[in-house]
Design a protein that fits this description.
The protein has one helix and 24 strands. It has a single domain, classed as TolB, C-terminal domain (Neuraminidase). With 328 residues, the protein is an all-beta fold. The chain has a four-stranded antiparallel sheet, with no helix packed on it. A hairpin with a 6-residue loop joins strand 2 and strand 3 (88-89).
Length: 328
């Protein structure tokens, strides 16, 4: 029997190449102070044409819900309010479920789930009724689905047993699945739904690219040396976030869509990854190991303001919580 072969660069690597001595545990107060002092990196030349940074106020408390992968009975899908309350486990079976994302209206969740060797399907779960609908049928290893802002389409990664991955698109119902880019993974929509941001190594090094949703006009937008993949585009189109770095030294970075104003967003020392913007664009959720550095199962969900202040931990469990995706 063939075993499922997961494509290395599209899977969130939770633990590898552990450092010899973990740094001391950092308190939330220390993290906040360190985040505020995070140095800016030198961006490439060129003016930014993006919108200005939203005004931030202490009263801008996080709202909405965050869906994520929780390692309960294997990998399952869980959801929590943005203030850390209201935890729910949404799936519960013997198969792996991951890469969840909320629909634009917050009424449902799409996610990827193991079906059989070399086959992962995409499912949609209605939060009100609990009804789960399988959208795909044996197309391959399907990961990272995300519903378009107008609710009509789903973009996702299709991988195969040979290690290849492409960006695919289908109707919300699962009809008309088709490839729109031959080499890429971890797609996410632009706020207006006309473009797709995704990771690719089409030019050698792994970087982020933007293309029209039909796959045309693909162009590179970053210049990283160790890009991991999952990224997000702020709701106002002003910022992008991704994560970068070697194993156990990863950080979340924020930058303009023209790659100007690049800076590290997360405090150092947490092995931070998998960022996602809040619906108002003023916060970013991410996975980190601040309190359990070096522990394979020590990842938790955190949030941080986009100015790098006010780090908050939302989960605290004896298992790993990762792949957060924020929605209404």
């Amino acid at each position: 029997m063939r075993r499922l072969i997961l494509i290395p660069f599209i899977v969130l690597t939770l633990a590898c190449n552990l450092v010899s001595a973990p740094p001391p545990t950092l308190s939330i107060a220390t993290l906040r102070a360190q985040a505020s002092a995070s140095p800016s990196l030198t961006p490439p030349p060129g003016p930014s044409t993006a919108a200005p940074t939203p005004s931030l106020f202490p009263s801008d408390e996080p709202t909405g819900k965050i869906v994520y992968t929780c390692q309960l009975d294997g990998d399952q899908i869980c959801i929590i309010n943005a203030d850390g309350t209201g935890f729910q486990q949404l799936t519960s079976d013997s198969h792996r479920r991951w890469y969840a994302a909320l629909s634009p209206d917050g009424a449902s969740v799409v996610y990827s789930g193991f079906a059989e060797d070399n086959i992962y399907e995409i499912y949609e779960l209605n939060l009100a009724s609990g009804v789960i609908t399988q959208l795909t049928d044996k197309l391959g290893v399907l990961l990272a689905p995300e519903i378009s802002p107008d609710g009509s389409l789903v973009v996702f990664t299709r991988g195969d047993a040979k290690g290849a991955s492409q960006i695919w698109l289908m109707e919300r119902s699962g009809a008309n699945p088709r490839q729109v880019h031959a080499r890429g993974w971890d797609p996410t929509w632009s706020p207006d739904g006309t473009q797709i941001l995704f990771a690719s190594d089409a030019e050698g090094a792994k970087n982020l690219y933007v293309m029209n949703r039909d796959g045309s006009d693909a162009r590179r937008v970053t210049d990283f040396d160790a890009l991991r993949g999952r990224s997000d585009w702020s709701p106002d189109g002003a910022w992008m976030v991704t994560y970068n770095g070697q194993p156990w030294k990863r950080e979340v970075f924020i930058f303009r869509p023209d790659f100007s104003e690049l800076r590290r967003l997360t405090p150092e020392g947490g092995n931070s990854q998998g960022p996602s913007f809040s619906p108002d664009g003023k916060w970013v959720a991410f996975t980190s190991y601040f309190d359990n550095y070096g522990d394979d199962l020590g990842c938790e969900i955190y949030i941080i303001r986009i100015d790098g202040t006010d780090v908050r931990r939302l989960t605290e469990n004896g298992y790993c919580d990762y792949q957060p995706r924020w929605g209404p």
